[in-house]
Amino acid sequence: MKKLVSAGEILVEPGPLLGPYPSGAPAIFIGQAAALGQPAGLIGAVGDDDFGRLNIERLRTLGADVSAIAVHKGHATGTAFVTYRADASRHFVFNIRNSAAGLIETNAAATKLLAGADHVHVMGSSLFSDRAIAVALSAIETVKAKGGTVSFDPNIRREIMQASGMREALDQVLAQAEIFLPSGEELFLFSSARDEKGAVEELLARGLSCIVLKKGAAGAVYHDRHGAVASSGFAVDEVDPTGAGDCFGAAFVSFWLGGAAPAEALLIANACGALAVTRKGPMEGIFPLEAVEAFIATGKNTP
Ligand code: ADP
């Protein structure tokens, strides 16, 4: 089986009554991929503290390769706070750059993980500093040099994406990606077209293999040069939307790597995205493949 790697922030979020919750977009992504049986590992850094141990243990339990998560003494594990606004938008407060997460580097363990990797997934939010950008770009270079592939989720978090080279890095990652997974308005950050059809055409013409537009409760639409495949979402009670896009992306990329047809990859991805929103906490809605398949067998598709 192909091996999937991501690099970036590993964080904790506070919980309302219980918690803290393991978090960080690439950590959620790799956790969900591993839970589906996809060989997957993460390059990142945590502090030598209980928050860091919580993250590593959770990822290990989900089946992820945690060998390239560095543990730093003297630096705390990164943190994220999410505020849910009445208009359904979210505001994030992060402590990443000055936390252990900011010490991410392509060390010997990361180099070893990448040597066995076939695919790299990059989250835009993981390009939070010059140092983090260097790690992401070098991971892409390593994997591409041996014929591997790249997926990219812009996951725009303006609160942390302030590195001077960030915009250029986003464009560089997109230019090397096979799979592009934007949600909402993110599509238009990378295209001069102002309508969805025009933007998709422009981006496919630039060399992407496929674009998967995430559409919240409505599901997702896949585009490649042969046409489009739409897949409606599953009807669930949304408790917490954080992590849905990461779980969706992990499932889509894992099945794409396994050679699944777009409709099948979308079905599993929509199910993982829907399950993710049914639990408070970004990684609490990650389920193994058997549970996702059982959900699909009994779940109700939204009209
Ligand atoms: P992101 O989290 O990246 O902004 P979306 O909000 O579009 O992306 O969510 C990603 C995917 O998760 C959707 O394409 C869908 O499959 C699933 N999803 C998100 N919200 C819901 C919901 N309320 N009900 C069912 N599925 C959902």
Number of strands: 13
Q: Counting H and I runs of at least 4 residues, what is the number of helices? A: 9
Major sheet attributes: 9 strands, mixed
The CATH topology, please?
A: UDP-N-acetylmuramoyl-L-alanine:D-glutamate ligase
Unique bound compounds: adenosine-5'-diphosphate
Can you give the mean pLDDT? Answer: 94
Output the strand order for the largest sheet: 5-4-1-8-9-10-11-12-13
What structural class do helix, strand and pairing data support? Answer: alpha/beta
Name of the CATH architecture: 3-Layer(aba) Sandwich
Helical content band: 25-40%
Name the poorly predicted regions.
none
The oligomeric status of these chains comes to single chain
Give the full name of the CATH homologous superfamily.
Answer: Ribokinase
| H/E series | EEEHEHEEEHEHEHEHEEEHHH
Rg value:
18 Å
Give the overall shape. Answer: globular
CATH class: Alpha Beta
What fraction strand? Answer: 15-25%
Kindly report how far apart the N and C termini lie: 35 Å
The number of domains is 1
What features would you highlight for this structure?
single chain; 303 residues; alpha/beta; UDP-N-acetylmuramoyl-L-alanine:D-glutamate ligase; nine-stranded mixed sheet; four-stranded mixed sheet; 9 helices; 13 strands; 36% helix; 20% strand; globular; binds adenosine-5'-diphosphate; ATP-binding; nucleotide-binding; Fructokinase
